Amino acid sequence: MVGTILKIKTTIPPGSSGILPRPDIQEALEQNLLSKQGFFRQLTLISAPAGYGKTTLIRSWLEQHLEQVAWLTLDPDDNERTRFWVYLISALQTQKPILGAGPLSLLQDSAGPDPSADSFLIPLLNDLLDLENPLFLVLDDYHLIDNPQIHNDLVFFLENLPPEVHLIVASRSDPPWPLARWRARRKMEEVRQEQLRFSPDETRQLFQNLDLPALSADQFQVVLSKTEGWITGLQLLSLSLSRAADPGAFIETFAASHRSVFYFLSEEVFDREPREIQEFLLITSLLPRFSVSLCNAVTGRKDSSALVAELQEKNLFIIPLDEEGYWFRYHHLFAEFLARKLKTAPALLPAELHHKASTWFQNNNLPQEAIDHALAAGDQERAAFILNKDYEKIAGAEDPGLRSRLLNRLSPDLIKKHPRLIAQKVLFQLVQKGQKEARQWLNLFGDFSCQSPNEKKELDGLRAAVEAYYHIYTQNYSGAREMADKALKLLPSPSIYWRMSALVFSGDLRLLEGSPREALPFYQEAHRENLKRDNLYLSLSTGAKLTNVFNILGQPDAARELIQQNLEEAREKGLSRMPRVGAFWALQGELLREQGHLEEADRCLERSLAISRPEKPSWAWNLLFKIALLFSRGCYQEALSACRKLEETHQEVSLPRFIINPGLIWQARLFLQQGQKKKARQVLTRLGIKAEQALLPGMEWGYLCLARLMVSDNCSGAELREFLGSLEKKASQGEQKGLFLEIILLKTILEDRKGNSPGADQLFNQALAVGLEGGFFQTFIDQGEPLKPVLIRRIDCSPQAEGEKRQLELARKILSILSPRELTTPAKKSQSPVSSFLVEDLTTRELDILRLINRGLSNQDIAQKLFLSPNTVKWYNSNIFGKLGVNSRTQAVVEARRLNLIPSD
Question: What is the largest CA-CA distance in the chain?
Answer without folding.
Answer: 124
